[in-house]
Design a protein that fits this description.
mainly beta, 22-stranded antiparallel beta barrel, 5-stranded mixed beta sheet, 6 helices, 43 strands, 6% helix
Length: 819
């Protein structure tokens, strides 16, 4: 009997040890959408249930060499499931983020991060966006540090991607396309970006070769998701440039939630650092809200609303600009009369409802309305004196080369109403494949009046327009008897309506090729549109755009993914692309067409025992039916005739990782060449031909005082084609601006943040985050020019290019707090 008991105990121990040897372990920390630990989450697998502790930590055993599902459930969060297939004794670390918007399902090999990796999407951390300094801080400020993204204007939120212009970038917030004002011509008039950084949860960006589910633009996609709060919270930011407040609210039954933000900005601190002395009274303000309601576990509704008012009151007084060479230094002094009054009021609302028909089928309906009322009114008289600076080292002008005046007048008004209605669907099968589809109707109603002219004289003699057929003007040596005409004169009134139908379908599949993992995506878009209301009725036009992506992860020791993507991309003309330089609308402008080919390599590795990523992308674009344009500051003017072809080619590199433990930084480098051929005259550089780009985003802290943080934002771009007179023929005269060099640095003393476990002072315990910082914009005080002002001396017949410099060095103080 005793022998039997001993045998039984021996067999039991053997079976137990064998079972343990054949199991694996899953552990990690469970977080909510705001990266806070979630306790009391039930983690269930094969009848075994474990709970996360107060720090969100959990650990559970699962069988090895077998597909096993783990179910994560919480009383106030949606269920989440994960499927794993682990080796014996393997420990898999999984840090899920649970939300209360929709159920989440996935496999360890197809996580959200991996999906974005194989799709060529760069993800930017929302916390990083708020920390990095910039004259126009926000999402666009971070995008300008990514390879392939260029901007030479720190006062603007606009950016160009891989040879495209500002109108070629898609921007989505919660899957709703957003728009920007039409009439803005200067970066300092923009004020606020649509996206409120305080409300952001996720930021995804693709610089080309994107999928068919994204819209009809040629260059890039910025896809932003606002957060859905799980508990009450509030944040405050204040600086010398303005401030913002945001509030998170959640109902007791967790069905209602809302996040609301109010912002105000005043750019006078930056504008006053420029050459022109002004009376400048800007007022940029908006209020934005995202409201969510869970009708049931299957049906959710959300509303995104925004009201924005930008008032730009500008009264220039004087300007003094030094330029020229060491041998011949020169000075331009300008005295102004008059003022400019611009106002841009925008109203935006979007209603989105999501219905889960079944665990594998989800349908969404999105309706949105955008209304903008814009006024641009100015009368400014500028009288200038151009001269040589004395050789004695003083800054006084000792010889006057030219005097003259310039009168600019505008009464431009625009009223645009854009309505969208869209249905989208997502179908998933158990064999790791998905089908996505959508259909959309858009109606654009535009009412536009342009009255804009310019008069120029030199030494009291009127300068005729350069393109007019007039008698020869040889003043002051011969009297001129021809008519006096404005140097530039644009007058037009346009009432147009554009109706668009568009749709897409795409198929995603994860599979295996031998021992390698592969992903592929096949899709296509179409769009049909017509323009009415012009002098000539437009014909209906249709475009079809097939696209594809293929990615492979070889079974190597190195964690490396190769991706090939591309297809046919069309950009049907928006209203501004239909209007030529004289203000006349051509309703039959065709969609610009671009063939994208993008080859990339994504390599994850460890250096100094910390995670790093190296991404390389080689791309080529072949463009046809190109609508040639020119750029003046941030204002784009189109020829609107599709009489050109073009190409863009380049190579982008990005290295990012924890150069400093616990913080993410990156270095970007890009090479680009883009040229166009207008009416078969030959290839010349396009206005966005930015050959070289280098950028660095760096975060650090003092080793002995870790609560003192440093943030560096550094950008170097080679000079863009530009600064030429507006009337010049680019085939006869092309000019390049100087290289753009800028470094912004920020220092912050952090009293409380996520890494602070216990606040030493009692009054700090109410805060989740609290910091005070100093920012220095344009640290090295580089003189960057955005355009040139051309001044003519009627006697010598010479014209001088006087650079219009951007901001100089500026100091700013900033406070951040979150409850």
């Amino acid at each position: 009997m005793n022998h039997n008991k001993l045998l039984f105990v021996f067999l039991f121990l053997c079976i137990t040890c064998f079972s343990f040897a054949q199991s694996a372990h899953v552990k990690g920390v469970i977080l909510d959408e705001q990266n806070r630990p979630v306790s009391d989450v039930n983690v269930t697998s094969l009848g075994t249930t474990k709970q996360s502790d107060a720090n969100g930590f959990f650990e559970i055993n699962v069988p090895s060499n077998k597909k096993t599902s783990l179910i994560f459930t919480h009383i106030s969060l949606k269920m989440m499931s994960l499927t794993v297939n682990l080796k014996p004794n393997e420990v898999f670390v999984f840090n899920p983020v649970m939300n209360n918007s929709e159920e989440q399902m996935g496999e360890v090999f197809v996580s959200s991060r991996n999906k974005k990796r194989v799709q060529g999407i760069a993800t930017v951390d929302a916390a990083t966006i708020k920390k990095i300094p910039g004259a126009n801080a926000g999402i666009e400020n971070i995008l300008k540090t990514l390879p392939g993204v260029n901007s030479n204007n720190e006062l603007s939120t606009q950016y160009a991607v891989r040879g495209g212009n500002y109108d070629e970038n898609l921007v989505y917030v919660n899957e709703v396309e957003v728009y920007r004002p039409f009439l803005i011509r200067s970066g300092q008039q923009e004020g606020l970006s649509f996206t409120n950084t305080d409300l952001v949860q996720n930021v995804d960006f693709s610089a080309g070769g994107f999928q068919a589910k994204f819209g009809d633009k040629l260059s890039s996609v910025l896809d932003i998701t606002y957060r859905k709060p799980t508990q009450f919270g509030a944040s405050l930011e204040a600086s010398l440039l303005g401030g913002s407040i945001s509030v998170d609210a959640v109902s007791k039954n967790k069905k209602w939630s809302a996040v609301t933000g109010v912002r105000y900005r005043n750019n006078s601190l930056l504008v006053n650092s420029q050459d022109t002395q002004t009376n400048y009274t800007p007022s940029f303000a908006d209020i934005q809200t995202n409201i969510n309601y869970d009708i049931s576990n299957k049906w959710q509704v959300s509303f995104l609303g925004n009201i924005s008012q930008n008032k730009y009151l500008y009264q220039p007084l004087t300007r003094e600009t030094k330029f020229g060479t060491i041998d011949q230094p020169m000075s331009l002094a300008v005295y102004y009369e008059g003022k400019e009054r611009d106002q841009y009021d925008t109203y935006f609302g979007a209603l989105k409802t999501t219905y889960k028909v079944s665990p594998s089928l989800t349908l969404k309906f999105i309706g949105s309305l955008f209304h903008t009322i814009e006024e641009e009114h100015f009368d400014i008289l500028a009288q200038y004196r151009l001269g040589n600076i004395g050789e004695d080292g003083s800054t006084q002008v000792d010889f006057t080369r030219g005097i003259g005046s310039q009168l600019n007048h505008a009464r431009n008004d625009l009223d645009a109403l854009i309505a969208n209605a869209e249905i989208k669907g997502f179908k998933e099968w158990k064999n790791d494949s998905q089908l996505e589809f959508g259909l959309k109707y858009t109606r654009e109603s535009i009412r536009d009046r342009i009255v804009e002219w310019e008069m120029i004289d030199s030494a009291g003699f009127s300068i005729n327009p350069p393109i007019a057929i007039l008698p020869k003007n040889n003043q002051p040596y011969e009297p001129y008897t021809g008519p006096l005409l404005p140097y530039q004169n644009v007058r037009a009134t346009n009432f147009n309506t554009i109706n668009r139908f568009s749709g897409y379908a795409q198929y995603n599949k994860k599979s295996e090729l031998g021992s390698s993992q592969v992903w592929y995506n096949l899709g296509a878009r179409f769009q049909s549109w017509d323009v009415s209301g012009a002098a000539v009725e437009g014909k209906n036009q249709i475009v079809f755009s097939p696209r594809a992506q293929f990615a492979i992860k070889p079974d190597w020791d190195m964690d490396m993914v190769f991706r090939l993507s591309g297809g046919l991309y069309h950009q049907p003309p928006f209203y501004r692309e239909l209007r030529d330089l004289n203000g006349v609308v051509n309703p039959n402008v065709k969609a610009q067409e671009s063939v994208h080919i993008v080859l990339s390599n994504d390599y994850n590795f460890k250096m100094w025992n910390r995670p790093f990523k190296w991404v390389t992308e080689l791309y080529y674009k072949s463009l046809s039916d190109v609508n040639v344009y020119s750029i003046d500051n941030v204002r784009i003017g189109y020829i609107a005739n599709n009489n050109a072809t073009a190409y863009a080619q380049g190579l982008d590199f990005r290295l990012n990782g924890e150069f400093v433990p616990g913080t993410e930084s990156w270095i970007s480098f890009g090479y680009l060449k883009t040229e166009e051929n207008y009416e078969n005259k030959g290839y010349i550089a396009r206005p966005t031909d930015q050959r070289l780009k280098f950028a660095m985003l760096f975060q650090d802290y003092m080793p002995n005082i870790p609560s003192v943080k440093l943030y560096l934002n550094l950008v170097y771009n080679t000079g863009l084609p530009g600064g030429s007179p507006a009337y010049s023929d680019p085939y006869l005269y092309q000019n390049r601006l100087n290289d753009y060099r800028r470094a912004d640095v920020g220092f912050a003393k952090v009293f409380v943040d996520n890494s602070t476990k216990v606040a030493k002072a009692k009054w700090l315990k109410s805060f989740k985050e609290l910091s005070v910082g100093l920012e220095i914009f344009n640290l090295f005080n580089n003189q960057n020019a955005i355009t040139n002002t051309w001044v003519r001396d009627v006697y010598s017949k010479n014209q001088y290019a006087i650079p219009n410099y951007m901001t100089s060095r500026v100091f700013n103080i900033k406070l951040n707090a979150r409850l």
